[in-house]
Amino acid sequence: MLHQIMIFKKTRSQNKDQHFTDVLGLPCIENLVCSADETPEPIATTITGNIPSWIKGNFLRNGPGKFEIGRSSFNHWFDGMALMHQFHIEDGKVTYMSRFLNSDCYKENLEHNRIMVSEFGTIAMPDPCKNFFQRFLSRFELPKPSDNANVSFVQYKGDYYVSTETNFMHKIDPQTLETKEKVDWSKFVAVNGATAHPHVDPDGTTYNMGNSYTRKGAFYNIIMVPSKKVNPNDTLEGATVVCSIPSEDKSKPSYYHSFAMSENYVVFIEQPIKMDLLKIVTSKLRGKGINEGVYWDPKRNTVFHVINKHTGKLSLIKYYAKPLSTFHQINCYEENGFLIIDMCCSDDGQAINNYLIQNLKKSGNALDEVYNTVCRVFPRRFVLPLNMDSHTPCGQNLNTRLNNTATAIKTDKNKVFCTHEDLHGDDLHEFGGLEFPHINYSMCNSCPYRYFYGCGFRHLVGDSLIKMDLQGKQIKVWKHAGMYPSEPIFVSSPGAVEEDDGAILSVVITPNQDKSTFLLVLDAKTFEELGRAEVPINIPYGFHGTFQNRH
């Protein structure tokens, strides 16, 4: 089947507030959340077209792959047991393998043939083998953090780990996908978890964020992990907390999935998706999932906290914006005294609780209704002025950059209210907005850039691939009915000079065709298909991945 490639130019932007849809007739995608078997030995794929011979390495993907344990089922998409995937690419050929993460919760669940460890949206019920009094007492135990690291592959000190948002990661052998070592963040720094989206400086120093909970309330912590090992078996040794930011609401900190970083600053976006710590701590007692303690509070503005990552000093200036939700930032860089932050945003933060497995398995009008109640996500730019003092006037736009519609207005001492510029035209609405953004990270992270890539969301999961050219806000689109591509990963060609000289890798799932999943390779410049590697098995839709270059 031929793919489609479409090129669009920017048109006048639509209204900036609230992007809900009235789409009808969405195809059922329930097979995207069906449990799969692991494939622990590499199998051959069928190549169509041409896989460039210069691509040499492992495309690693992570996501949920097992949604039932015995007779018990997980409730939320985020809960499924982690299934790791590897596409090994060399000499124009591709092999595929997968393994379940051998986490403690996976082993415990299988041993007892039921869900033993609570996840984000699923509460582990008391052991039926215990007597009534023991079952009653077990409800008063604090929910233990899961080590089901099903979100992403990340790197620290040259080693690969799979990560989620608790305090546990697992070191993985990227060649075999074997689970090597469980690592606990809290053994190295005083945090109760860390994001699955760290940022890396050119020298390999890695930054992340994690929460801590004290008698003084909740704190957001910027963490730095050094680039090199002192000993061969080191994991997170040498990790330090660079800065601790108190939550504006001590008992209800904001949920965050990632953060932004430029050459000299870390930017934490405190959004009004709140976590009710009392509800979360008592979730087992109440028989409710942790997700029921996460809620959207549109009465609160969004706050940008700017931290100098070299000194650990938190800027006295607080930058505010209207209530918004963001899961993934695109890029962040400094230019002429401004901090430019590009990110995927929504005007409503309730989507996280729409991704129940029962919703993903719906069809017909019920499926359309779920999709149409999820606010669309679009790329936006915020411009934060860094050089302010007591003489800076109030009430006027401090963003003096040319050809930019974002505003930054000083409203009070050390307070600036910001509005965004849309990084798209009306054409992006046709494709349901954009999420899972990716850039040429090694060349462009923390620098001015021109291109980013992402998934269009004209369904509850990505159903197209999009390349955005910020010069003119033009898009190129790869889309085909019944095909659901994963987050696009950019792989730079050897000796590349131009930003988009390389390839895009994406795993395309076909829920309504049996065993026809394929690895898609696009020319990043033209966005045309170069080749695909068909895998003769079914794979669930995953979350994030990375490319391990073996040159």
Q: How is this structure best described in words?
A:
The chain is 8% helix and 39% strand. It is mainly beta and 551 residues long. It has one domain (30-549). The strands form 9 sheets. Strands 3, 33, 34, 35, 36 and 37 form a 6-stranded antiparallel β-sheet that branches.
Q: Mean of residue pLDDT?
A: 93
Low-confidence runs: 1-15, 132-140
Oligomeric nature of the chains: single chain
Q: Please compute the radius of gyration using only Cα atoms.
A: 23 Å
Strand share of the residues? 35-45%
The total of beta strands comes to 38
Q: Helix/strand-derived class?
A: mainly beta
Count of helices? 7
Largest sheet, described in full? 6 strands, antiparallel
Instruction: Give the overall form.
Output: globular
Helix content: under 10%
Work out the count of structural domains: 1
Distance between the termini: 32 Å
